[in-house]
UniProtKB/TrEMBL annotation:
GO terms for molecular function: acyltransferase activity, transferring groups other than amino-acyl groups. The lineage of its organism: Eukaryota, Viridiplantae, Streptophyta, Embryophyta, Tracheophyta. This is N-acetyltransferase domain-containing protein. Transmembrane segments: none annotated. Residues 6-205 form the N-acetyltransferase domain. It holds the Pfam family Acetyltransf_1. PANTHER family: ACYL-COA N-ACYLTRANSFERASES (NAT) SUPERFAMILY PROTEIN, N-ACETYLTRANSFERASE HLS1-RELATED. Belongs to the acetyltransferase family. It comes from Lupinus angustifolius (Narrow-leaved blue lupine). Keywords: Acyltransferase, Transferase. It comes from the Eukaryota.
Length: 420
């Protein structure tokens, strides 16, 4: 095959859908020789990018045969922070009020940091038919996608892959000029047949999208990769809500007076997260499992049905298509924030159970202190997901930040649910 005979063009949903699905079916996600994770896009090949502000899908074909595809999306995110030109802002320090577990406030001023935004692109869903790999098709798809990024003023392009996916890492770092950037952790927990325990010492409040946006922008807008259009995410039909955990007795759904009041009268510890419904976008299926592993999974479910009083953690059937919820925007403050996150994850587990999901997943920085409150199974999780980045723009968005690709990692990272 000559690479010159490969045509790269925009995906046409009217004539390409069936052929794209055929390529998807024969491509596996994950290291070869191990369990493979297959994705069913439910008849919509662009489902994983269509909720982004701008997106494109390209296909590579020879004659009438599609041999590869790639998706890309563009958005504006935080790449750093700087001191506000206004210098200072009103800040509320706190003193404990033992009667209601809340804090009284004292107004003061401190230097204010504001986010520095940049226009970035994200590459995902790169697939090449097994019979046409190592021929330069993947590189041609990436280069064509990057041209579209540049035409739209993108400064940086990044992608995510498994750290041990040697072929993918080599393509992007050796052939495409990307560099290793961040290594967040994907934490996955099964949704069991029984409801998870949520501590009675914690009250969970569902926030309105406006309150959630206000809280996120006030406390987390300087977090790396924070999306400037957070309001679009929170108001999206796939966002099932933002949930705030506070100590019992401090606030309730009925006594909630809004995020502005909360920020000036915050408890000593609190946490929040949002839930994204991936189940309505695509499903997953584990293939390649041995008969022994399948039998063990069936045994746990059989024992649970036979002896329900034991509350056994029966393993969901991952060998059939299953959906999941993605937890994003995890954050919190105070000495008991980890416990608050644990309560929120229990609440999210029960919500996923009600929606018939197989797992709950999230992705956090490997340095994130709140990760210790996130329950997960090591065998299902990925401790070292790899994000690679490349600078496309000739100029920088802000002189105080410089080249983002060379910046050290922060404590936290904001993972956009539209990218997962």
């Amino acid at each position: 095959m000559s690479l010159d005979s490969v045509v790269v063009r925009e995906f046409n949903p009217n004539k390409d859908r069936r052929r794209v699905e055929e390529v998807e079916r024969i491509c596996e996600v994950g290291p070869s020789g191990k369990l493979s994770l297959f994705t069913d896009l439910l008849g919509d090949p662009i489902c994983r990018v269509r909720h982004s502000p701008a997106f494109l899908m390209l296909v590579a074909e020879i004659g009438d045969e599609i041999i590869g595809m790639i998706r890309g999306c563009i958005k504006t995110v935080t790449c750093g922070k700087k001191l506000s030109r206004n210098g200072k802002y009103k800040h509320f320090t706190t003193t404990t009020n033992n009667n209601n577990n809340c804090n009284d406030t004292i107004q003061s001023t401190t230097p204010k940091h504001v986010p520095v935004y940049t226009k970035v692109a994200y590459i995902l869903g790169l697939r090449v038919s097994p019979s046409h790999r190592r021929m330069g098709v993947g590189l041609k798809l990436v280069q064509r996608m990057e041209s579209w990024f540049k035409d739209n003023g993108v400064e940086y392009s990044y992608m995510a892959t498994e750290n041990d996916n040697i072929a993918s890492v080599k393509l992007f770092t050796h052939n495409c000029g990307y560099s290793r950037f961040r290594t967040p952790s994907i934490l996955v927990n099964p949704v069991f047949a029984h409801r998870a325990h949520v501590s009675p010492k914690v009250t969970i409040i569902k926030l309105t999208p406006n309150d959630a946006e206000s809280l996120y922008r006030s406390r987390f807008s300087t977090t790396e990769f924070f999306p400037r259009d957070i309001d679009s995410i929170l108001n999206n039909k796939l966002s099932l809500g933002t949930f705030l955990a506070v100590p019992h007795g401090s606030y309730t759904q009925d006594t909630w007076l809004g995020s502005s009041f909360f920020l000036s009268h915050a408890p000593k510890s609190w946490a929040l997260l949002s839930v994204w419904n991936c189940k309505d976008v695509f499903t997953l299926e584990v293939r390649g499992a041995s008969r022994t592993k399948r039998a063990l999974a069936r045994t746990t479910r059989l024992l649970d049905r036979t002896l329900p009083f034991l509350q056994l953690p029966s393993i969901p059937d991952f060998f059939k298509p299953f959906g999941f919820h993605f937890l994003y925007g995890l954050g919190g403050e105070g000495p008991k924030a980890v416990k608050m996150v644990k309560a929120l994850c229990g609440f999210a587990h029960n919500l996923a159970k009600e929606h018939g999901c197989g797992v709950v997943a999230t992705e956090v920085s490997c340095r994130e202190p709140l990760r210790f409150g996130i329950p997960h199974w090591k065998m299902l999780s990925c401790a070292d997901d790899l994000w690679c980045i490349k600078r496309l723009g000739e100029d920088y968005s802000d002189g105080s930040i410089g080249d983002w690709t060379k910046s050290p990692p922060g404590i936290s990272i904001f993972v956009d649910p539209r990218d997962f």
